[in-house]
Amino acid sequence: MRRTPLYAAHQALGARFVDFGGWEMPVQYAGIIEEHHAVRRRAGLFDVSHMGEIELRGPHALAAAQRLTVNDVGRLRDGQAQYSLLCHPNGGVVDDIMVHRISDERVLLCVNASNTAKDLAWITAHREGADVVDRSTELALLALQGPRATEILSPLTPLPLQAIAPFAFAEGPVAGRHALVAHTGYTGEDGWELYCAAGDARALWDALLAAGAPAGIQPAGLGARDTLRLERALPLYGHELTDETTPLEAGLAWVVRFNKEHFIGRAALLQQRAAGVARRLVGVTLLEPGIPRQGYRIRHAAEIIGAITSGTKSPTLGKAIGLGYVANAWKEVGTRLAIEIRGHAIGAEVVRLPFYRR
Q1: Which residues contact 277 (CB under 8 A, 6 or more apart)?
Q2: Final residue belonging to a domain, choices 134, 157, 175
Q3: Are 39 and 231 in contact (CB under 8 A)?
Q4: Which ranges of 90-157 would DSSP assign to H, the alpha helix?
Q5: Same domain, 161 and 121
Q6: What does the pLDDT look like over 216-240, one tens digit per residue?
Q7: How many CB atoms are located within 10 Å of the residue 289 CB?
């Protein structure tokens, strides 16, 4: 399995590792629930260096990004980022990504770790004359998340963090190392994502943990990252998003800018919008003990109407929550359903998303 530049640091902290898409990654240190609460209440530091970074360069970089992604790159100014999707011509999702406009000739795409090779091939095949540079091995990515994240990061950098709006970024020194510092995250809390040279990752990791110690920072693994994103109903590729799932089904119509003249998947998504979406992603909470897991069937009376894509017991809310696709007739908030768990029909209710709001 592949390892990030911070593998030795995780070992020293007593991390428990798992195989995540071919990467040996820390799933927890002190424990998933403790790390989850640290992020919600104080701050947590994640190593997400397994994510892929692909850069479009040259005079055609913006045009390529505009055709490849469903969101409107034309709305970005230098130093701004946006959440977006790569789609197939049939509207299915290749991947969900973050787009960073560095300049009119440099656009950095952050892609999911398990999809890096697939995305690189897709982007290269539809590059519209842009140069495509895979920077995944040269860059590391740290995520500092939580209500005290800015307080922890500020003394380490001269960058004016208070002036960097959400979904904006700036480049400059952090603890003496150059980094691209983005006001983004995947936890539902305020926070920062720091892109740096792989060789600088350990110095930044150690500096952030030291600076955050008085504030109660904790290193956090993929387990807490998953429970945090699920409480906020943020999609995860391979669960809520797949090659067969469209943004409209996933509740991501707000990302799709149909006013753009051309992007891959536009015709199919326009057709689906006109015809009506047959299924929708919904949130459910259980009314009885149990935990909904990916693949568990969703029923209404004797009828199978969908399946769970992600589920857990929410550490913040203290109840079992899940995301899943159901036939469109059963998507309304308040609808009573049942989840099949080990041969039993467990009562559930469709609830408003997200489960948790900051």
Answers
A1: 246, 248, 249, 328
A2: 134
A3: no
A4: 116-125, 149-153
A5: no
A6: 999 999 999 999 999 999 999 999 9
A7: 9
Q: For 91-140, how does the pLDDT look when each residue is reduced to its tens digit (9 = 90+)?
A: 999 999 999 999 999 999 999 999 999 999 999 999 989 999 999 999 99
Q: Name the DSSP letter for residue 260.
A: S
Closest CA to 60 of 134, 128, 133, 132: 128
Instruction: Report which residue type is found at 138.
Output: E
**DSSP3 helix / strand / coil % (the chain, rounded to 5):** 25, 35, 40
158 exposed, middle or buried (CB, 10 Å; 0-12, 13-18, 19+)?
exposed
CA distances from 281 to 188, 247, 319, 358 (A): 19, 10, 19, 22
Compute the half-sphere exposure of residue 95: CA atoms within 13 Å on the CB side of its CA: 23
Same domain, 21 and 157: yes
Extract the tokens encoding 84: 């977006």
Q: Is 4 left (phi over 0), alpha (psi -120 to 50) or beta?
A: beta
Long-range contacts of 118-123 (CB under 8 A, 24+ apart): 118/94, 119/52, 119/54, 119/86, 119/94, 119/95, 120/52, 120/54, 122/68, 122/86, 122/94, 123/54, 123/56, 123/64, 123/68, 123/86
Alpha helices in the chain (DSSP H): 7-12, 32-41, 61-68, 116-125, 149-153, 201-212, 222-231, 266-275
Nearest 5°: CA angle at 41, between 357 and 18? 90
How many angstroms separate the most distant Cα atoms in the chain?
62
Output the domain CATH number for residue 305. 2.40.30.110
